[in-house]
């Protein structure tokens, strides 16, 4: 019997193969994160006997990481001063903030869990080189990563994951303020399962019971009826629940009564404080306050008859908790997409002759509209010293108020298509729109195209479900003047009233008018550059796992988006120094036939 000869690979060959498989992210990370200590030479003693081979493979001729290593050698010292040192503490965690930031960039670049990333530090030579560790280094426990993120959240320092890398890029002359930036958003799915209403109610009560059982088991055991174990010991699944009908309605009422029974017991003086403290109890209060109401006089001994399920229609956005395990995740529909989770707004530079780097990642609940985040994004960029002169965004970020505020507060030219007007005058050729009327802001008078003057000027606050949404001005014309006017068919369709206009305050009105004038000219050319950020979002979603939350809660979801943005910046800087051009938009073979 013949045997296939197994090829022999020397240690040097294995090292070279391992490094060639590595992405260019690691090559840049080595230059930006490694410490000031020189790499060991072939004559050095200790456990670094294999590191010269790693360095030679890393910097070999033709290797993609070579441009990064040479170009970023000058910033190694600066990056090292930002770190606390490479010595390990007694807990076994890697010393210094910058190495942990670089470690998270590599972890999110490859989509590894904490456990697998810690294994990579112990078993992969390229990771050891990038983190300036000895080849014989035993690594650290994966729980260190969770503790590190917890400290970032505790001190509200999650931005350091992104800003430390931006500082290094700025020191290298690759990032500057008063350039051109662009912003777009995408949805992020929460790390929860989708629940119908009955599942949400029963699972919320079950989560509260589990939390109280951990905090005060003896007290809970004294108040829980025996039949609760049948309903709440196991996870609530819709397949095990009765279908629509009287049985399902009765179960909903029973769950509601059980929840009120627990809440009433927690409100009694003899309830221990430890049973009231869990966050799941607060969630139970909020969910029951939105879905149930108690009242009436039911039959004696039948508490379910006093519990009534509230309708959710026409109640506004409210406090719509979708899962007791992530109370900050919200449901939203945008065009044809519906999801439960969050929104992430990515802002990146788009100047010619420089890499396109993400300078801000803003995470919000899904129900927060894009227009509500423009000022917050500008304020964050100002705090980083990265205010742009031109900010490109789509229509969801554009409003008269934001156009005026961006120019007045930060000197930013916010560029994007304004939302199209919905009145029939804008949709009809020859119709008289607001732009056709002359406004005298000092005298509070408006003159129509036919020369008539307005008779009323009233300022008011526009509201949405009771929330103030900015100031507006309502202008009215006399019906006696509009009725015989020859241009009435082009101006108004009202029979008993004259023409009415709704205007923005002066600064907002003029900013919006200027955008509409420029829309068909220079602005359209600039706005075309905004579409490039859609490629950034596609890269973050497809290659970096931005679409799905790894953690629960808004703060942790925001930390994930910051780490993802930092990892993407590593990748782009590596491509920039390797002189790898930007990929062009893919075109299918059949589409090329029509070109």
TrEMBL record:
<dbReference type="Pfam" id="PF13751">
    <property type="entry name" value="DDE_Tnp_1_6"/>
</dbReference>
<feature type="domain" description="Transposase InsH N-terminal">
    <location>
        <begin position="100"/>
        <end position="151"/>
    </location>
</feature>
<feature type="domain" description="Transposase DDE">
    <location>
        <begin position="448"/>
        <end position="574"/>
    </location>
</feature>
<dbReference type="InterPro" id="IPR008490">
    <property type="entry name" value="Transposase_InsH_N"/>
</dbReference>
<dbReference type="InterPro" id="IPR025668">
    <property type="entry name" value="Tnp_DDE_dom"/>
</dbReference>
<dbReference type="Pfam" id="PF05598">
    <property type="entry name" value="DUF772"/>
</dbReference>
<protein>
    <submittedName>
        <fullName>Transposase and inactivated derivatives</fullName>
    </submittedName>
</protein>
<keyword id="KW-0614">Plasmid</keyword>
<dbReference type="InterPro" id="IPR047629">
    <property type="entry name" value="IS1182_transpos"/>
</dbReference>
């Amino acid at each position: 019997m013949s045997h296939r000869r197994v090829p022999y690979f020397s240690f040097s060959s294995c090292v070279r193969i391992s490094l060639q498989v590595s992405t260019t992210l690691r090559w840049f990370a080595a230059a930006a994160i490694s410490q000031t200590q020189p790499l060991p030479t072939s004559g050095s003693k200790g456990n670094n006997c294999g590191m010269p081979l790693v360095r030679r493979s890393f910097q070999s001729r033709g290797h993609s990481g070579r441009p990064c290593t040479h170009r970023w050698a000058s910033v190694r010292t600066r990056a090292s001063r930002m770190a606390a040192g490479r010595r390990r503490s007694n807990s076994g965690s890697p010393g210094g903030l910058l190495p942990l930031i670089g470690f998270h960039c590599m972890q999110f670049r490859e989509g590894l869990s904490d456990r697998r990333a810690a294994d990579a530090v112990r078993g992969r030579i390229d990771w050891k080189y990038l983190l300036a560790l000895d080849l014989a280094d035993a690594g650290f426990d994966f729980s260190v990563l969770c503790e590190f993120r917890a400290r970032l959240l505790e001190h509200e320092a999650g931005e350091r994951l992104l800003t430390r890398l931006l500082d290094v890029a700025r020191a290298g002359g690759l990032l500057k303020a008063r350039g051109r930036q662009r912003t777009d958003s995408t949805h992020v799915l929460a790390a929860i399962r989708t629940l119908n209403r009955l599942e949400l109610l029963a699972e919320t009560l079950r989560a509260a019971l589990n939390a109280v059982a951990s905090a005060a088991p003896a007290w809970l055991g004294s108040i829980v009826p025996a039949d609760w174990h049948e309903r709440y010991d196991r996870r609530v699944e819709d397949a095990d629940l009765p279908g629509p009908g009287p049985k399902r309605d009765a179960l909903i009422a029973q769950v509601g009564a059980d929840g009120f029974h627990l809440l009433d017991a927690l409100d009694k003086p003899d309830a221990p404080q430890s049973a009231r403290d869990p966050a799941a109890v607060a969630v139970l209060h909020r969910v029951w306050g939105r879905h149930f109401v108690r009242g009436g006089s039911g039959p004696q001994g039948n508490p379910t008859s006093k519990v009534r399920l509230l309708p959710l229609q026409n109640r506004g956005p409210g406090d719509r908790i979708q899962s007791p395990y992530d109370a900050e995740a919200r449901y939203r529909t945008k065009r044809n997409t519906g999801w439960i989770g969050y929104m992430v707004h990515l802002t990146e530079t788009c100047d010619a002759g420089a890499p396109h780097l993400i300078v801000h990642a803003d995470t919000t609940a899904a129900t927060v509209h894009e227009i509500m985040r423009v000022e917050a994004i500008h304020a964050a960029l100002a705090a980083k010293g990265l205010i742009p002169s031109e900010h490109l965004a789509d229509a969801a970020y554009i409003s008269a108020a934001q156009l005026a505020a961006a120019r007045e507060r930060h000197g930013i030219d916010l560029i994007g298509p304004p939302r199209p007007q919905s009145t029939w005058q804008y949709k009809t050729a020859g119709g008289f729109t607001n732009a056709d009327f002359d406004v005298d802001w000092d005298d509070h008078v408006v003159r129509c195209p036919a020369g008539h003057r307005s008779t009323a000027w009233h300022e008011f606050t526009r509201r949405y479900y009771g929330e103030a949404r900015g100031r507006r001005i309502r202008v009215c014309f006399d019906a006696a003047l509009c009725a015989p006017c020859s241009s009435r068919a082009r101006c108004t369709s009202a029979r008993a009233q004259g023409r009415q206009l709704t205007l923005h305050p002066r600064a907002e009105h003029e900013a919006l008018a200027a955008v509409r004038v420029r829309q068909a000219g220079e602005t359209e050319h600039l706005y075309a550059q905004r579409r490039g950020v859609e490629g950034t979002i596609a890269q973050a979603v497809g290659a970096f796992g931005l679409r799905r939350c790894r953690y629960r809660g808004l703060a942790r979801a925001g930390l994930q988006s910051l780490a993802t943005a930092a990892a993407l910046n590593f990748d782009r800087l590596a491509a920039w120094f390797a002189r790898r051009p930007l990929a062009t938009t893919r075109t299918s073979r059949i589409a090329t036939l029509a070109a």
